[in-house]
Amino acid sequence: MARSTKKGAYIDGYLQARVEGMNARNEKKVLRTWSRRSTVIPEMVGHTIAVHNGKKFIPVYVTENMVGHKLGEFAATRLFRGHSAKGSAQEREEAAAAAAEAPPKA
User: Fold this and answer.
1) Are 53 and 77 in contact (CB under 8 A)?
2) What is the pTM of this model?
């Protein structure tokens, strides 16, 4: 269920105050935050925000296309390391079928 438009986008107060302060001073520095639940607002465009993913801070450069999304969407929390080195069952079946179709060696 979406947040009511009457309430507006959710953004932590401290984060909004820091972004507005940086805009007033024309500063462009990396802003570290743990607030993954905050919505990207138009005032953030052009800033780099380091979003915590549970282990480290992931720098996210905010563009116009990101407005309305949550900061946590741009800092993945899980790392996919790939499947097993032995290969999947489907690959083994394909290899076996290719070997069966090959002409016999003389």
Assistant:
1) yes
2) 0.72
